Amino acid sequence: MPPVVLTHAATAPHRVGDLVAAVLRDMEDLAVRRFPQWLPGAEDIAGPGGAGVRAVRVLAVRLAAGDGHFGPFLADLAEAALRGRPCTARFSAEVRAAGLGRVIGTGSTIAVASCGELSQGEADVLSAACQWLERWTGLRVLRAPSAPAVTAAALPAPAPPSAPPRASDGPVPQDRLAPPDRGGPWEPRKGRPHHASPAEQRMESVLRRCEWAAGREWNQVYASHPLSNPIRVDLLWREARLIVEIDDDSHLRQETFESDRRRDVRLARDGFVVLRFTSRAVLTDAQAVAREIAAFVNEGVGNGTVGSADLRDDRPHGRGR
């Protein structure tokens, strides 16, 4: 699975245990939403009826035996995901953190953002919770810039600086890019991928053959209201309230990473889910990225979430962010 950034908005943290518990609940919710991607063999199990629960528990125990997971926790998490609900907390916080860190995946990040200014005591609690989470999840945990209270969102993470995209990687075999759906082409509703971005061009070559992607809009300008600073977004599904960003290696710089998080918080406050993928992830396996996007598009359209934000296509296409 592509790595993710899980952004949690911390509201007046007074105790380390309470903040840790809140982040673990967000991690469990993300694991449930991404099921069955993290459990090979569970793709064809339709639901908890019949032998479904027993089947996913057996698969989870087998995965744990060969991959260093704790079997009982992973089996509980798989059952909870099949039933579409968060996992019960019958295990210690340490066990849950370690298991969820493995499920969410190597290279992922937890970003904990404070909602407004914190007292010194609250700042100490937040720092201690971040240190605890980093130790037990095995993931990178950072304190994001202060932000208004928002719902935690799952964002695919930038690749680590040790593995930037390379121009010498060469073309990706075409059989790696087989689209999830057949037929089409389904053209974008508005806009186009940037002509100087191979990753955007590659993503479009897959999406144009996916019927679920027909409502996409490329390189649109968003503003919360007429007086706010506009944001150019790479890829938008208006009805699903979904924005997809495709980041090159310039987004690995610390100042750019923090700026991206502020943008994401602003968009989340306005009701959008923001997914971020690296250019390398798209060029390596665009089909896997498309499947990740499809899960959010279908969920958003099914919920009937339609926004009223100002999204315009009246500026020259470019990468000026």
Automatic annotation (TrEMBL):
Keywords: Endonuclease, Hydrolase, Nuclease
SUPFAM superfamilies referenced in this protein's UniProt entry, alphabetically: Restriction endonuclease-like
GO molecular function, one term: endonuclease activity
InterPro entries xref list: DUF559 (IPR007569), Restrct_endonuc-II-like (IPR011335)
Every DUF559 domain range: 233-297
Superkingdom of source: Bacteria
Pfam families noted in UniProt: DUF559 (PF04480)
Region (Disordered): 153-202
Official protein name in the record: Endonuclease domain-containing protein
Gene source species: Nonomuraea mangrovi
